[in-house]
Design a protein that fits this description.
Layout (H helix, E strand, L loop, with lengths): L26 H8 L12 H14 L3 E5 L2 H12 L6 E5 L3 H4 L4 H4 L4 E5 L9 H7 L12 E7 L9 H13 L3 E6 L2 H8 L3 H5 L4 E5 L10 E5 L1 H13 L8 H12 L2 H22 L11 E3 L2 H4 L3 H10 L8 E3 L7 H19 L11 E3 L15 E3 L2
Parallel strand pairs: 2-3, 2-4, 4-5, 5-6
Antiparallel strand pairs: 1-7, 6-7, 8-9, 10-11
Helix pairs in contact: 1-11, 2-11, 3-10, 8-12, 12-15, 14-15
This protein binds pyridoxal-5'-phosphate (PLP) and threonine.
Catalytic activity: L-allo-threonine = acetaldehyde + glycine; L-threonine = acetaldehyde + glycine
Pfam families: Beta_elim_lyase (PF01212)
Protein name: low-specificity L-threonine aldolase
Length: 387
């Protein structure tokens, strides 16, 4: 070991159910970073970055990959690259991250109109949903023709049925539309559905594959596509300030994340979520979506539960929540499952006596007032999200 000591005890996200983005680098990742290549990745000279891009592209069955520092950047430059001559539109699920959580990137970077669609089955867009809402390029000068269908797999933790994806792909090809996948949690879908990433790769024109979610790398995504597409994405990445230099450090950490039994790790996260979903069903706690993978979405509106009460009940049992979404990941300790059940039960019982009807706008972000915790200490201001 060099004279640089690793932090004596770095904090893991062992009780953090707010998101799978809170996982922390493992010691193996930190050690791998110490011997990472240090070339300038903007000039394509960082070996570990190139190796990561090639590895992920090959896993997904694409010609090329591009390391991006975030999934937001990866999604937005992919969609920008698929779009040529405005006016045009992108059709997606009304809950899609590219529409709801990427700060209007589609409007600003791509000058695109978004057609957000509510799935008729409540869970995922079908080809029929798409046909009913897409804007044909038929010369109507009032319209912004749909040029890209952007799907998310998983979305709300739901695994997209393969046969539906294949149907959508066939129709997109017949109608000259591109098909992008926000694959922030495509690893979860692949594991749960037992479908190789390459099979998803045969369906989409591009996939943004996050490394920093359930896989557990500290940051980044790899955008995959054909060579010409990725070359242009690289141009937009640079334009958006995403041309990072010695990214080998991050690439090596991501390689460890991918190599360290990701399938087993994700299966465990999913089983914890399935256990909690079964518990909610037994207790009569309504859920927004089927818990196919690592997320349990409690239907706060139907349960008339106040998210801040749930967050505070979570803190009472030393688990971190930020609203109705309970996000499992591989660093969650086993006993957190029983603790979050206690928190949910108490918040649900509280709601029966003190129903909370949130008829206001969808609040993406808000802070609860501080309070005294079970030990008599002031709880830091709790920031909660709509989830
Ligand atoms: C579905 C989905 N897509 C994309 C992103 C964006 O990733 P990042 O936070 O790395 O920008 C996230 C959130 O992290 C996400 O949940
Ligand atoms: C908040 C959102 O952007 C993030 N992707 C998450 O799932 O936690």
């Amino acid at each position: 070991m060099t004279d640089m000591e690793l932090p004596p005890a770095y904090i893991t996200a062992s009780n953090d159910l707010r998101s799978d983005t809170f996982t922390t680098p493992t010691e193996a990742m930190m050690k791998a970073a110490l011997t990472a290549s240090v070339g300038d990745a903007v000039y394509g000279e960082d070996i570990d970055t190139v190796k990561l891009e090639q590895k992920v592209a090959k896993l997904a069955g694409f010609e090329a990959g591009l390391f991006c520092v975030s999934g937001t950047l990866s999604n937005q430059i992919a969609l920008r690259t698929h779009l040529y001559q405005p006016p045009y539109s992108v059709l997606c699920d009304y809950r899609a991250h590219v529409y709801t959580h990427e700060a209007a990137g589609l409007a600003i970077l791509s000058q695109a109109m978004v057609v957000p669609v509510i799935p008729s089955n409540g869970n995922y867009l079908t080809l029929q949903d798409i046909k009913r809402h897409y804007v044909p390029d038929d010369g109507d000068i009032h319209a912004a023709p749909t040029k890209v269908i952007s799907l998310e797999n998983t979305l709300h933790g739901i695994v997209y049925p393969l046969e539906e994806l294949i149907r959508i792909k066939g129709w997109c090809m017949e109608n000259g539309l591109k098909l992008h996948c926000d694959g922030a949690r495509i690893w979860n879908a692949a594991v749960q559905a037992n479908i190789p990433l390459k099979q998803y790769g045969e369906i989409f024109d591009s996939i943004s594959i996050c490394l920093s979610k359930s896989i557990g790398a500290p940051m980044g995504s790899v955008l995959v596509g054909d060579v010409k597409f990725i070359k242009k994405c690289n141009h937009f990445r640079k334009q958006q300030g995403g041309g990072v230099r010695q990214s080998g450090i991050m690439a090596r950490m991501a390689m460890v994340a991918i190599e360290d039994n990701w399938k087993e790790r994700l299966h465990r996260s999913h089983s914890l979520a399935h256990n909690l979903a079964a518990f909610c069903k037994k207790q009569g706690i309504p859920l927004e979506s089927p818990a196919d993978t690592n997320f349990v979405f409690v239907d706060l509106r139907k349960a008339r539960m106040d998210p801040d009460v749930l967050v505070k009940k979570g803190l009472k049992y030393n688990v971190k929540l930020m609203g109705g979404r309970v996000s499992f990941h591989y660093q969650i300790e086993d006993d957190v499952l029983e603790r979050v059940k206690l928190a949910l039960s108490e918040a649900f019982e509280y709601a029966k006596q003190h129903p909370c009807d949130q008829d206001g706008p969808t609040q993406v972000y808000r802070s609860a007032s501080t309070e005294i915790d079970v030990h008599g200490n002031a709880i830091q201001e709790i920031k909660t999200y709509k989830y």
